């Protein structure tokens, strides 16, 4: 989901970004109960847009609503992340034939992949703040959504978009090196070139390598406290 390119900033957008910032910078900790009144005082925003921002984040999996207990920051759990990445691997490799077919016959899709890769590398090379970090992971997520969208399966795309595929990114800020991040984009480039070559085995291999490497990097960088 694109969280970085709103044409105008609503109060919901402002609250949404402030909440993401506080989770990323560990002002709001995993498992911590969210008190809307406290957020109203902290952000200077009324409670209604804060509630709407939290609803958006519930959909993304960053926060969760517990019946009779309220809303809390989602706990960071390695087993959950590992299972999520396994699901991504299953989805992204199952439809390789359909994805290759769409890619071959849709020049617009190719252009979107190229724009994503170029912008992603530019952001990494010139990143200076937290907003650039968010943009980095938005572009990472966008690449995979473009890939899955090529399957032509609309129901699958809705499921994939609701997985919260990159929620872990908000817990490893400042822990992954620039070199590791660049390596991830290079793996995206390898997937793209395999699609251009229409090499089914290579596409599958590149996707598998990328997700396995992502799993290893996340495990290394995930807070253990």
Describe this structure in words.
Pfam families: FCD (PF07729), GntR (PF00392). GO terms for molecular function: DNA binding; DNA-binding transcription factor activity. This is DNA-binding transcriptional regulator, GntR family. It comes from Sporolituus thermophilus DSM 23256. Keywords: DNA-binding, Transcription, Transcription regulation. The chain is 68% helix and 4% strand. A two-stranded antiparallel ribbon has the order 1-2. A hairpin with a 3-residue loop joins strand 1 and strand 2 (70-73). It has 2 domains: 11-73, Arc Repressor Mutant, subunit A (Orthogonal Bundle), CATH 1.10.10; 78-221, Four Helix Bundle (Hemerythrin (Met), subunit A) (Up-down Bundle), CATH 1.20.120.530. The chain is globular, with a radius of gyration of 18 Å. 27% of the residues are buried. Residues 1-6 have low confidence and may be disordered. The protein contains 10 helices and 2 strands; from the N terminus they run H-H-H-E-E-H-H-H-H-H-H-H. It is mostly helical and 225 residues long.
